[in-house]
Amino acid sequence: MFTNYQVNNFKILEEVGSGAYGLVFHVIDTITFSDFAMKVIIKSRIDCTEDRRDLLTIELLKCFNKYGDDYLDNKIFLPAIDLHSIKSLTPEQLEHIPHYKEISLQLKVHAHKNVVTIHQVLESELATFIIMDYYPVDLFTAIVDQERFIMDGLLVKQVFLQLCSAIAYCHKLNVYHCDIKPENLLLDNDDNLVICDFGLATTSKYLVPNVSVGSSYYMAPERILSINNTNKFLTMNSDIWSLGIILINLVCIRNPWLKAHQTGDSTFSYFMRDQSILMKILPISDELFEVINSILQINPKNRVSIIEIMKKVSMVKNFTREGPLTDVPLMDENVFFNCFAAPVDEVSPCFAQQRLDDSDATTLFASSSSSNIHLSEFITTKQKTITNAYTASSSTSLDTTPFVSDVENCNKQYFPIQEKLSFL
Ligand SMILES: Nc1ncnc2c1ncn2[C@@H]1O[C@H](COP(=O)(O)OP(=O)(O)OP(=O)(O)O)[C@@H](O)[C@H]1O
């Protein structure tokens, strides 16, 4: 529907996902020709669960209609928000703009190689646009449709350890993801895993009552307990439970139960009485059973730590009792420590925020062999486009988030979030 629509220098190629509040698009940067993902979070509340995608689409169309102009060919130009100002929003401020909580928490941890990097946040009155790295496939598709892991135990180890490494890093910075599931884990072309969707993430050390939101397959039993339960559970431990279910997914292409609820799921109810049921319903080896059992402890306090899980998984020799996963190479100690123990990018992930400094742009174009556009040409074209955009849109009534006025503001200047949302 939105193919060829453009937000600043990001042209939409296709829709790649939709969720409760937003749509995700594969976009191309018309300056560098690099791929990005653009998540559009619609601000208006949509209560109905049916036709949600259609309603989100209508809201996004409104956004293009409000700010765009036929003359501009479905292009809109929006101000970018300074990412540091989002990171420093207080919990009280985030109460007023809940969708910024997701962005703020992801920004806290996106320096990790296995967390999706956010490059820009563009603000409009109707929607917020998040520009992130783009990944071609999610883990669900890779496991179920492509069966990418059934022959390759080392790949299972690599992907799972990357996930553990990212989650451990988040926990170290007091960010708890709370929605670890294959649809929220993406793979690059070299099968490196990254985590996305911090929509349910929290910094709350303890689970807040009635947190039964998310996918039931991956949810720890304490998250499904009745709201009258007054025990305090560490949020961190419920992420660890989800890791155990993902490990089962990777090796067995299935889930052990629909939900970890004693009366609501007969398999889980059986598992509570006798954990070895896992050996009967899944083709896992004794060795893997031992690892999974140390993770899927009903009492969250008894669950093994993430670093212990990582050590155990790297040493597993066979994942299954039969088939190609019976003989899995041990992970080389150097690979383990280089790839998983020091996982933080040294390069600032916010390259997009600086890239239109002249020197950076020159470097970018110089290094882009596929592009034959020169910097001077680019600046002229870009200035022309954005000047046109401004002329055409200057009569539009702009409420809380005025249009940017020129190329400087559109691509170089970053506004503090407090300036764009004056109520903060
Ligand atoms: N950076 C990305 N690159 C490629 N695809 C992505 C990216 N981010 C998200 N997606 C795709 O879009 C889907 C929806 O994204 P996301 O989970 O962030 O949205 P959401 O609105 O929070 O969804 P939900 O309500 O289901 O949690 C993902 O499952 C994934 O398939």
Helices and strands in order, then pairings?
Layout: E1 6-7, E2 10-18, E3 22-29, E4 35-42, H1 52-67, E5 75-76, E6 80-81, H2 83-87, H3 91-96, H4 99-109, E7 118-123, E8 127-133, E9 137-138, H5 139-145, H6 153-172, E10 185-187, E11 193-195, H7 221-224, H8 235-252, H9 266-273, H10 277-281, H11 286-295, H12 306-315, H13 333-341, H14 351-354, H15 358-367, H16 375-393, H17 407-411, E12 414-415, H18 417-420
Parallel strand pairs: 1-5, 6-12
Antiparallel strand pairs: 1-2, 2-3, 3-4, 4-8, 7-8, 9-10, 10-11
Helix pairs in contact: 6-8, 6-12
The protein binds adenosine-5'-triphosphate.
Residues 16-17, 19-22, 24, 37, 39, 116, 132-135, 138, 183-184, 186, 196-197, 199 line the site of adenosine-5'-triphosphate (ATP).
Descriptive report:
- This is non-specific serine/threonine protein kinase.
- It catalyses: L-seryl-[protein] + ATP = O-phospho-L-seryl-[protein] + ADP + H(+); L-threonyl-[protein] + ATP = O-phospho-L-threonyl-[protein] + ADP + H(+).
- The protein is an alpha+beta fold and about 425 residues long.
- It folds into two domains: about 5-135, Phosphorylase Kinase, domain 1 (2-Layer Sandwich), CATH 3.30.200.20; about 135-345, Transferase(Phosphotransferase) domain 1 (Transferase(Phosphotransferase), domain 1, Orthogonal Bundle), CATH 1.10.510.
- The protein contains 18 helices and twelve strands.
- The strands form three sheets. A seven-stranded mixed beta sheet has the order 5-1-2-3-4-8-7.
- A hairpin with a 2-residue loop joins strand 1 and strand 2.
- Helix 6 runs antiparallel to helix 8 (about 235-250) and helix 6 runs antiparallel to helix 12 (about 305-315).
- Residues about 345-410 have low confidence and may be disordered.
- Bound molecules: adenosine-5'-triphosphate.
